[in-house]
Amino acid sequence: MNSKNQSNERLLRIGLPSKGRLAEISAELLNDAGISFRRSERSLFARCKDMPVEVTFLRTDDIPVLAAEGAIDIGITGADLVAESGASLVHRLDLGIGSCRLALCVSIDDPVLDASQLAGKRIATSFPRITREWLAERGVEAHFVELSGSVEIMIQLGIADAIVDLVETGSTLAANRLRVLDEIGRYETVLVQNQHVADAATADRIVRRLEGIVIARSWSLLEYNIPRRRLSEAEQITPGFNSPTVMALEDPEWCAVRAMVRRGEAHGVMERLEAIGASAIIETRIANCRL
Ligand code: PRP
After folding, report:
1. What's the confidence (pLDDT) of residue 184?
2. Which of 22, 137, 220, 275 could form a disulfide with 17 if both were Cys (CB 3.0 to 4.6 A apart)?
3. Residues 38 and 93 in one domain
């Protein structure tokens, strides 16, 4: 596969995670944004159908450096990996997925109260750069055990006094009898871009399309009927993205309202609307939007 299109210009190259859950989620996101491709088995490249774009499948933790070096123009990876790489990149979009926190953790049996007590202690982590900076801001110097995985068992193995690891649900911590001593940062999956991307117009188009999908996924459309005398209360419950659409009904005492609501809040909003007399309340998922 070469990287030239018919007019002999270089195709815009997107780096996507090659395996794991993030690989599936990223491919689905691009597909929903109309940037579709078919990955043949074991192939590291795929050409997109309707855009001058080529997809390259890479290790998620290599994507920040490869984007900074220009091997890819844009890439999907974790903001934690971007920060840890120290690469100079343009942050284009938070993708609303993969949110996690990076935490300093100790054994639940350890009486330590704060990070300052870890001076001179051994800390196991896959995030030495972020951790070192965070500790330095607090005047703490520690000994680092740098690993690429299984950090959570290092206290039990006796080679670390504390660990710095990602926490999502907290089940890994619980399973290993660990507790959070302090939070170092919060991260999510992001779209990053090389600072000197050649085809900026195509990169911008991709960002706009993905943005439409990301926003659509976090909002729902709510429609309901409400007695006119309760309309102002209803509008306070559903102020909409800009403002709600209000339509007249045949019965002059009633009106119909359409408004966008945060998807995570839809159930609670529906209950509140019902409590003030709304009926025929319908939630519709939004597939795509430009706001
Ligand atoms: C990450 C992280 C923790 C775990 C946290 O590991 O390193 O071990 O997830 O998630 P939880 O709070 O929901 O339990 P991942 O599964 O990505 O694999 P890794 O250990 O190979 O990094």
Report:
1. 98
2. 22
3. yes
13: CATH? 3.40.190.10
90/196 same-domain check: yes
Best of 60, 81, 166 for a ligand 1 pocket test (most atoms within 8 Å of beta carbon): 166
Q: What is the pLDDT of residues 16-48, one digit of tens each?
A: 999 999 999 999 999 999 999 988 877 899 999
Residue 290 lies in a domain: no
- What is the domain extent for residue 206? 2-97+189-216
Tell me which of 97, 172, 189 to substitute to probe ligand 1's pocket, judged by most ligand atoms within 8 Å of the beta carbon.
Answer: 172
170 C-beta closer than 6 A to ligand 1: yes
Find the helix or strand (DSSP H, E) in which 262 lies: strand 254-262
Q: Are residues 40 and 176 in the same domain?
A: no
For the residues 54-71, what does the mean pLDDT come to?
97
**How far is residue 215's CA from residue 206's CA, in Å, rounded to a whole number?**
14
63 and 32, same domain (yes or no): yes
Closest to 82 (Cα-Cα) out of 155, 191, 212: 191
